[in-house]
Each structure stands twice: as C-alpha cells, then as structure tokens.
Amino acid sequence: MEYNFCGNSGLQLPKISLGLWHNFGDTDRFDEATRMICTAFDNGITHFDLANNYGPPPGSAEINFGKIFAAQLKAHRDEILVASKAGYRMWNGPYGDGSSRKNLMASLDQSLRRTGLDYFDIFYSHRYDGVTPVEETMQALIDMVRQGKALYVGISNYPREKARQACQYLENQNVRCLLYQGKYNLFERSPEQETFPLNREKGVGYIAFSPLAQGLLTNRYLHGIPAGSRVRKGSGFLLEEHLTPAVLEKVRRLNELAEKRSQSLAEMSLAWVLNNPNVTSVIVGTSSVPQLRDNLKALENTHFTPAELQQINEILSP
Ligand SMILES: NC(=O)c1ccc[n+]([C@@H]2O[C@H](COP(=O)([O-])OP(=O)(O)OC[C@H]3O[C@@H](n4cnc5c(N)ncnc54)[C@H](OP(=O)(O)O)[C@@H]3O)[C@@H](O)[C@H]2O)c1
Q: 47, 286, 297: which to mutate for ligand 1, most atoms within 8 A of CB?
C-alpha cells in the first residue's frame, strides 16, 4: 500500500480506504464483512470509514465494525484510523437530524458506544444542513477534539462557500480541517471546480467517496442486473432507472479501454481518481473479498497517457 499525506497535516492515509456504508449492516453476511475488514488491514488499508446511519438498519455497521474490531484488530488500534460522521437523520425528533451541536455531540457519544472505541481518529460533519450556522457545527467539532473524543475533524458534502467558512472558523481556533469528503468519479467531476481549489488553498486533504459510482463504473451491470447487487437489493440510492442505455454504452466503452490497459473497469476507474494529485485517498465499498482484491490492483497502474485521458473525456462527453 502507498500512503499520502493528508493536505498539510502530518497524517498519512492509505491511497485506498474501506467504506462501510453498504455491505456491513445486519442484513449482510457477518463472515464476509469480517473477511473484508481483515483482508483490507492485511493489505495496508489502515483507514475505515463509518457514519452513524450506515447499515441497514442505521447504526448496525458501527456495531458490526465494533464486534469485528474487538475480535480481530484491537491489538492494532494504533495502526488504524477509524472515521465516523453525523448529520443525516438517525433518530426521531428534532435532535436526531441535521448539523446542530445537540445532534453532533449526542451522535458522537452514540457512535463511540456502538463501536466500543474510546475515540475516533476522524469525525466529520456529514453535511451542511442549510440551516445551522457553520460556526455552531464547527465549534461542536472543535470541542470534540478538545474533549479527546476525536483526533482530527473534517467536513463532507459542504457547498464551496460553506466549506470555506468552515475551514476558516476551524483555523481561527487552531483546529485545522483535516479532510473534505466528497463524491468524485468518472461520472461526477464537479469537485474539479467546486472543491479542489479550496483544498489546495487551505491545505485540506480530499477523500473521494463512491469512486465506482456505487458499482456502475465496474463490470457489475454490463450483462444485466445480478442477484445480490446494490441495484437488486434496492436498499440504497442506486436504482434500476439509473442504468439507462446511454449510461451503459459509456460503461461498455470505458470497459473496452480498461481491457486495453489490462485492467478491470473497477481498477481503471479507481486508478483514474487516484491519478488526480488533489486526491488523498479513495473510499471503496465492496461486497466481497474478490472485489476488494480487484480494487487493490488499481494501485499497480495509476498512470494514463494523454491519449487515454482524451479518449475518456470523449466517452464521457454528453
Ligand atoms: N460522505 C458521504 O456522504 C458518503 C456518501 C456515500 C459514500 N460514502 C463513503 O464512501 C464509501 C464508498 O461508497 P460506495 O459504496 O458508493 O463506493 P463505490 O466503490 O463507488 O461502490 C461500491 C460498490 O461497487 C461494487 N464494486 C466494488 N468493487 C467492485 C469490483 N471490483 N467489481 C465489481 N463491482 C465492484 C459493489 O457493488 P455490489 O454491492 O453490487 O457488489 C460495491 O458495493 C462508503 O462505504 C462510505 O464510507 C460517503
């Protein structure tokens, strides 16, 4: 595994991190979840990305991670980064959702209890909720650090100007924003204009989620919708209606290019994200150990020729 320094900080992240949004809940196979986490760590993936609401049901990914961690990885606590987040609906009533101090503080304590950890390495505000003043949310993050419950803090899904305000507020209180977590993949390139310039200016790392567009940018849907796939499970945001003929045609052409590079499409899609110098790490989600091993192979070739990059742009142009 190769590691990148996270923005201007002294913390290194593995180029590939593992996310537990899907495939680690109570409706998934605990034995496969255990194997994926252990295989990840054995291959140098030292960073696991959680949130309060991951499951289903919400909270179960943290509970399952906690069980696996206690049984397999506890002795390696200082070799591992665990991240969690709060900001989306988690419990009933006005305090179980959004980015208020009340929600974030309660949610952090719940997440620590579910995982059985003493602290999170990284804790994020999961979103700007459109109402809560950024100062209130950032002060809550600062206080988590002061309380020793989080070593570093980050933000996710913040619009550009709110992200700027957040970074500035943190900086003024001597708690830097470590990381911005946002969606970046071959189909979603808005961070190139929206987020990367601020990251560079402020020395904040960028960690890309859904680098495979939830499985679209792999060979998963090239020959129909397989049983057990994210679309078939129907518990998430990737829907059958997203698999339009136009999208599948682009995927097929990208797959041909990947074959010419002697890579799977998943490998090439991850390599393309990692080829961007603004990206500190990609968070992959996997439903099996073979998928994880395939994704790790992306690191063997993250170089693209100008002709390949041009071909990719042509395939993706509307
Ligand atoms: N901050 C946020 O708001 C936010 C939002 C979304 C995600 N995230 C984080 O980012 C992580 C990754 O997101 P994601 O799960 O959407 O990532 P993704 O890597 O884009 O998609 C993961 C899915 O792609 C398929 N896949 C993965 N590797 C494959 C391979 N080698 N070959 C074929 N198919 C493959 C699997 O689908 P099947 O299940 O069908 O096998 C897997 O579940 C999450 O777990 C979470 O930690 C954060």
A: 286
Q: What is the average pLDDT across 224-232?
A: 93
3-316: which CATH architecture? Alpha-Beta Barrel (3.20)
- The pTM is what? 0.97
Count CB-CB contacts under 10 A for residue 199.
22
Domain ranges of the chain: 3-316
CB under 8 Å to 288, separation ≥6 — which residues?
A: 32, 36
- For residue 195 and ligand 1, the question of a CB distance below 6 A is answered with no
Residue 116 Cα to ligand 1 midpoint, Å, equals: 25
Would you list the DSSP string of 50-80? --TT-TTTTTHHHHHHHHHIIIIIGGGGGG-
Measured distance CA(139)–CA(204) in Å, rounded: 18
For residue range 175-203, list pLDDT tens digits in order.
999 999 999 999 999 999 999 999 999 99
Instruction: Tell me which of 15, 16, 17, 21 to substitute to probe ligand 1's pocket, judged by most ligand atoms within 8 Å of the beta carbon.
Output: 21
Tell me which residue has tokens 């991670």. 65
